[in-house]
Amino acid sequence: MKTLWRVGALILILLTQVLPIHAQAVGAVEVLTVSGAIDTWNEGYISRGIGLAEQRDAAAVVIVLNTPGGSLNATQNIIIRLLNARVPTMVYVAPSGAWAGSAGTFITLAGNIAAMAPGTTIGAAHPVNESGQNIEGDMREKVTNISVSLIETIARERGRNEVWAASAVKQSVSATAQQALDAKVIDFIATDLNDLLAQADGKKVKTATGTVTLQTRGAPINRVDMNFAELFFHTLVDPNIALILLNIGLLAIAVELYNPGATIPAVVGGICLILAFVALGQLPVNWGGVIFIVLSIILFLLDLKVTGFVLTLGGIVMFILGAMMLFTPFTPTSPDVVTNVALSPWVVLGLATMMAAFFVFALGAVVRGRHAPVLMGPQTLVGAEGVATTTLAPEGTVQVKSELWTALADGEPIEKGQQVTVVSVDGLRLKVVKK
Fold first, then answer.
1. Domain match, 144 and 19 both
2. Count of the separate structural domains present in the chain
3. Does residue 294 contact residue 251 with C-beta atoms inside 8 Å?
4. Which of 81, 180, 220, 247 is exposed most, by the fewest CB atoms within 10 A?
5. What are phi and psi of 351, to 5 degrees?
6. With the CA atoms of 145, 147, 153 and 156 taken in that order, what torsion angle do they form, in degrees rounded to the nearest 10?
7. Angle 310-326/287-303 helices, nearest 10 degrees?
8. What's the chain's average pLDDT?
């Protein structure tokens, strides 16, 4: 029996050694899926995926791309990584309906192989400022010229149409998949990933280590997903989530200010505010909107001190105005900033309603409770009526609220059985007068 176990263990060891060698010899294709804004975390994800492909000696790395645009710094770093990759790179704009707008145009052109699915779009890469507006004056010409030079360099390096690439920046030109193919902006149109790998098979591409002939037809596919940190922080780069985090953070800090020492609201508020500013740092923020939102919280807090709802209504209006100003909607024309940033009106109205309800009913009830008369303890007996159970001359006992108390007559003596009224409390002794 021991011999059989040893033989079985030896076979397993041999299999674990042989199978990976066989899979590595065939050469797998590492597939990354990039969607949404091009930000710091998408940059890290792409860099990590290319690094894994290099470590595994992959046949190629494919970036399935669908983006409206993104950060200029992140885009530049991705381009550098693609141009210096030691494995063949493919950028595939997919699925149908996807597009490589703005920063996505630069990234698509930087791949060894550029392909698009039917029904996709590429282009519109004219630079704008961080607020999503056209750059004015000499800076506009400077930024445009730099962007044109960059995209022309990429197109020249990859043997693509430099004229079209420049026009995508200068005139915000865009193209369908077929138009991009006809203009020699991309290499081919692929219906799906298998079609992409089949069409790319046999093509010669230039990598950082030299010219490589692609062997991708029928190659195994390994999908590289975002890790938890990349996915979490990339998800934050959403205007609605950023506003929600900012709102929760401010509300939690307000609770801590009205209830010092609670600790939990301070911790929650601090975390939410930090995450909110991390998200806002990746978005084209109008900081005037942030100021409006902070001022709306202040108005809500002030309304707790006064009678009426004028300040609360003002706070609601100010919050809605701040949310509307927080991000400026604009067209997808920039490699510099995230494009198409817009808040859901339902999120804005929902948060405004929640804030008003919170301050009026929840926090308001706490504040009003602090100023309410004490309803427990001996002090609640002041003004209460009872009956003398002994003669108070001046001290005796009285029955008040079904309990016997030591009492002191305030003024003339009180006979047993007479009605009394409590005028003050001294410790556990009542001072009473004849009713």
1. yes
2. 3
3. no
4. 220
5. -65, -40
6. -100
7. 160
8. 82
